[in-house]
Proline iminopeptidase
Amino acid sequence: MGETPREHGMLDVDDGQSIYWEEWGVPDGTPALYLHGGPGSTLATSAYRHRFDLTRTRLLGLDQRGCGRSRPHAADASTTLEAHTTAHLVRDIETLREARGVEQWIVNGVSWGSTLALAYAQAHPERVLGMVLVAVTTTSRREVDWITEGVGAVFPEAWDRFAAHAERSGIGYERGHGRLVEAYLRLLNSPDPAVRDAASREWALWEDTHISIGTGGFRRDPRWNDDAYRTAFARLTTHYWTAAGISDPPIPAGMDRLRGIPGTLIHGRRDISGPAVTAWDLHQRWPGSRLIIDDGDGHGGGSMGEHWEQANALLVSGVTFP
């Protein structure tokens, strides 16, 4: 297969949003959907298509609203985030499915994308042939508070810098009083571009830090060099990690809606920022799922890709799990 999608385009959805989409593989293959992480990442820097047998799969992906090639872009301070909730993103996925003439598909999601995949499947279980979830999250308040504050117990020097930046900002944040994620949300929506830029840089540094275990050690993600990418990522992440991204009812409470849908949960034992207990809890609540915990990997390390490829190959072959 080539290095450019077989088809791609822009899809107008509600609230003045326009979503970029692309298709890979063969038009008569088993339909599959890929949901990227973040919130606020993009398809453009992802090698997701290599996790699918494109000779047997019709693979679709989209840049979620506000990021990548979708418009309006969240890096623009004038772009309101009022029309950004998990429910809006679920509707965008359904709009894409209908527009592309897909009856049912295998739904894949990575990190935040696994939260979105679960929210979509619980809203539209009749449209889901199976699921593959990698670096599993549900974006609960417990998970968000852990990744922004609790995991500071593992990286105390880095977290001290992360929290101190918010404390020095003059927005009234004091550690131990208020949530740090909400403080950064205020900074990233500041009318002052210098404040937004500095906050996005600190957020990116913390992101690189807390995913470093099990992924080859600390290294700077080159995507942060793109100011628009970095700003949109940080702004959308803090937005969805507050009330906008929390499902009601919470995702774990709705897992019985997936009864009979085959699914694979793939998680790294060394994923410090997203402990494996979330994947374990979902597996316990989801009849028809199987859980793979890779002892050597962290948040999306290399060998988990092999599990991902195998899980999709099984679903394309029509395999279900007990």
